[in-house]
Structures are given as C-alpha cells and as structure tokens.
Design a protein that fits this description.
The chain has seven helices and twelve strands. By secondary structure, it is of the alpha/beta class. The longest helix has 13 residues. The chain is globular and about 50 Å long.
Length: about 260
C-alpha cells in the first residue's frame, strides 16, 4: 500500500484491539469491555503519516453505527462541554469577534458560546449536531479534534480551505504523532473514531500541496492560511492544551492498564 499523503511505502506499525478508547488511558480501565478483534495501523516509511486503513473503507452509516452512537461520549467526556468551553474562551482571548464556521463542531456548544462573545458563529457536524453544511464562507474556520476522525485527508483540508475567505484562517487541532511509532500510543484508539494521524512532515506536505501555509502553535494546535503573512499574529496567541496527559498505559494485553511512568 502507498501513503495517501506522499505516496511513500507503508508498513504495519501497530495492531490494536478495536474497542480500545482514548478514555481508557485516562480512567485506567477499559470503558468498552468487549473485545471486537484487532485492527492494523499502517504507517508511511517516508512522511510518517499513519491510519487505520480498515476504517478508511467504512461508509458513513458504519461510522454512525459503530462509533458515533449513543455511547460515543463515554470515550471522550470533555467532548460535550469541557472542551468547547475551554476552546471558546481561548478563541475569545485570541481573536476579535468575527464570522466563524466550526467544522465538526459536535453539539454546537462552542459556536453558541462564541456567539455570546459577539462572534457570528455557526457549527456543522455530519455525525453529531447540525448536519447541514454551511453555504457561505467565513473569516475563521475551526476544526478541533476533527482531523484524526477523517479518512481522506486531502478532501478534508480542501473543504476547510474552501470554507475560509481568501484571506481567512483555518484553526485546527490534532495531536501530532512521533515520526515513527515504536510501541503503543494512546491517541491511536479506534473506538474514538480516530483514523488518521499526522507527523509534522506529513501535515506540512499535505497543506503545501493544497496551497496552504501553516504554523504549529504546539503539538496540538495548528493554524493555516493561503497567505503566510496572515499567520504571523497567531504566533502571539496564548497557549491552550486541548487534551490532558493520560495517567495510564496498557501492559501486555488490551485489558491490563498500569500507571504511566
């Protein structure tokens, strides 16, 4: 198989039980106890991009049934309220109120909180919340904890680019992976719907191919724009942590968690 980002040769980097969630590493237990078989994580030997290729072949109906169902929030408790509040506060401290589209905005909580701060903000999420895609563009397009959920990365970032004004900003989060995985990593957890994982190299390659410049404010927060000069003010934005640091690691099997060293 070849890498969707750079065309490089891929290999199996990790085999993971498909019902493992990110929340397991924070709670120290299997949130979804049933084993549902293993899934291979494929990693590019060149740019380091990794993905669960089996999930990349799923239809939206399968994702809705297997991942984004009534039990989804169990694997990511901050999804419903804590994370939207934190990010709305951070954006309000970083930007003057303007028009904004929150792509993959879940239940629309962040967009609603930003509206209270004077933003003209709307949310769109094909699996959760408002499924109707906006028919307009905006000065700011956000996509927090969305990138890792999307199988076809070029289509995602082309959509985000096209939703932004020509001089607009795309503000997104996804935790960057090490160039090479040498063992387990909490963020590559299938039950969360995490499919795609970027390195700094793979992200730079993809965005450059789409005519976008970008900066990484941290290993989690990234800002992209057509015009590189538009990125400079973002370097002065305050720091924010999207995810916490998990306190547990898996031992010899996918049911044995121990405190992280």
């Amino acid at each position: 198989m070849t890498c969707q980002i750079c065309g490089g040769v891929t290999h199996v980097a990790l085999v993971k039980e498909r019902n493992v969630s990110c929340g397991d590493y924070f709670e120290g237990r299997r949130i979804y106890s049933a084993d549902r078989g293993d899934m291979e994580l494929i990693e590019c030997s060149a740019c380091g991009f990794a993905s669960f290729e089996e999930m990349s072949l799923w239809s939206p109906d399968v994702f809705q049934r297997e991942i984004y169902n009534q039990d989804y929030d169990l694997c990511d408790p901050p999804f419903l309220d804590e994370r939207p509040r934190k990010l709305a506060k951070w954006l309000g401290a970083s930007l003057a109120p303007t028009d904004l589209i929150d792509f993959g905005g879940g239940n629309g909580k962040m967009a609603g909180l930003l509206a209270e701060q004077g933003f003209e903000s709307v949310s769109f999420d094909p699996f959760y919340g408002d499924p109707v895609a906006p028919a307009h563009t905006a000065s700011i397009v956000t996509a927090f904890e969305v990138v890792e959920h999307v199988p076809v990365q070029q289509d995602l970032f082309a959509t985000l680019r096209d939703l932004a004004h020509a001089d607009g900003l795309i503000v997104f989060s996804t935790l960057l992976k090490p160039q090479r995985l040498t063992g387990d990593w909490w963020y590559v957890s299938p039950r969360n719907g995490h499919v795609s994982f970027h390195t700094r190299q793979s992200l730079s390659h993809l965005l450059g191919a789409l005519g976008l410049s970008h900066i990484c404010l941290s290993d989690e927060i990234h800002v992209a724009a057509r015009d590189a000069a538009r990125l400079e003010p973002a370097r002065g934005w305050p720091q924010v942590a999207v995810n916490g640091v998990p306190g547990f690691v898996f031992g010899s099997n996918w049911h044995h968690l121990t405190p992280a060293p």
